[in-house]
Design goal:
TIM Barrel, Lyase, Ornithine Decarboxylase, Chain A, domain 1, 27% helix, 11 helices, elongated, 356 residues, eight-stranded parallel barrel, binds pyridoxal-5'-phosphate, alpha/beta, 2 domains, six-stranded antiparallel β-barrel
């Protein structure tokens, strides 16, 4: 028997979340972002749920090739562009669309020999200060790109740093419109947060990622309550041992948890080597047989321990949900000081994953 830990990918939830994204941006086409192995869900497992999208956005050429093998004939966008001249051969071979964010990439395109024109998304740095041309340099970059024989359609692209927070996007939207003024071509600006909260930034193509997986761009479960998103991944395991500790006894490495009274504790087959964060503190939510309870003691490599006070009748073999359909991943993440994105991407190789 394998360990009772597994992740389940909910195909219907992915499809549902894509419909929700479309409802929020009804006039835009969608790049479904599936970088990082579809945010940990697995490219091949996520694909059937998301195939009603207009295009897929990702980073790795290998992922792009895999998507073509899955018979996806539609647009694929390389969100970071390419890194060396031979990448352009792969882009050409698989008919990929690529971001272009710097002169080095433009130079490589100028030198390339292509079988057909490549569509590009010329990236503007409108304030994130990661990738792209500043608004002042954007027009010259666009003119240079347009002069390249091998370049087909040019979409104008930028990325927001604060679409989920109080800073907002007004300053970046203003910078974008200033830099792109008078330049023809489709626009692509919005990540998930902007899809949900900034309809003025939707334009021609939107690029949702996290909402397709049913989690919150802000990391706060309350921010996506009642909009119909469904968690696309459930991480579940079982109780493999039960201990009753006396008042004053501790549990696990470092004896970080000391029982105040006689307490029933379960040991669950899931640890940091599975991708469950070791930093998860006491109080992190866990669901045992449908009852919400909490983590106690330190997470170890292969196990973690859970307080059974609210559910005293459970025992070995009882089902434990670490996050998923009944426990928002963002609740677990915020307890750990991070966001759902990080947890889902960090699911370890050794965890068996199946799609349903
Ligand atoms: C990852 C990424 C997205 C999707 O971001 P979410 O917050 O997951 O919606 C969109 N655009 C670019 C350029 C990205 O790198």
């Amino acid at each position: 028997m394998p360990r009772p830990l597994s992740a389940t990918i909910h195909t219907a939830a992915l499809a549902n979340n894509l419909v929700v994204a479309r409802k929020f941006a009804p006039k835009s086409r969608i790049w479904a972002v599936i970088k990082a192995n579809a945010y940990g869900h697995g490219l091949a497992r996520a694909f059937p749920g998301l195939r009603a999208t207009d295009g897929f956005g990702l980073l790795d050429l290998e992922e792009a090739a895999k998507l073509r093998e899955l018979d996806w004939a539609g647009p694929i966008l390389l969100l970071e562009g390419f890194f060396c001249p031979t990448d352009i051969d792969v882009i050409d071979h698989y008919s990929l669309t690529t971001a272009v964010h710097c002169d080095e990439q433009l130079r490589m395109l100028e030198m390339a020999r292509l079988s057909k024109p490549i569509n590009i998304q010329l990236k503007m740095n409108s304030g994130m200060n990661r990738l792209g041309y500043t608004p002042e340099k954007f027009r010259a970059a666009w003119a240079r790109a347009r002069a390249v024989q091998g370049v087909g359609q040019i979409t104008l692209m930028t990325h927001f740093s604060d679409a989920d927070g109080p800073h907002g996007i007004a300053h970046q939207l203003e910078a974008f419109e200033r830099g792109a003024e008078g330049i023809a071509g489709a626009r692509s600006l919005s990540n998930s947060a902007a899809v949900l909260w900034h309809p003025d930034a939707h334009f021609d193509w939107v690029r949702p990622g996290i909402i397709l997986y049913g989690a919150s761009p802000s990391g706060k479960t309350a921010d996506i309550a009642d909009i119909g998103l469904k968690p696309a991944m459930t991480l579940a395991s079982e109780i493999i041992a039960v201990q009753t500790v006396e008042a004053g006894q501790s549990i696990g490495y470092g004896s970080t948890y000391v029982a105040a009274r006689p307490t029933k504790i379960s040991v669950v087959a899931c640890g940091y080597a599975d991708g469950y964060p070791r930093v998860a503190p006491e109080g992190t939510p866990v669901i045992v047989e449908g009852v919400r309870t909490q983590l106690v003691g330190r997470v170890s490599m292969d196990m973690l321990t859970v307080d059974l006070t609210p559910c005293p009748s459970v025992g070995i073999g009882s089902r434990v949900e670490l996050w998923g359909a009944n426990l928002p991943i963002d609740d677990v993440a915020s307890s750990c000081g991070t966001i759902g994105y990080e947890l889902m991407c960090a699911i370890a190789q050794r965890v068996p994953v199946r799609a349903e």
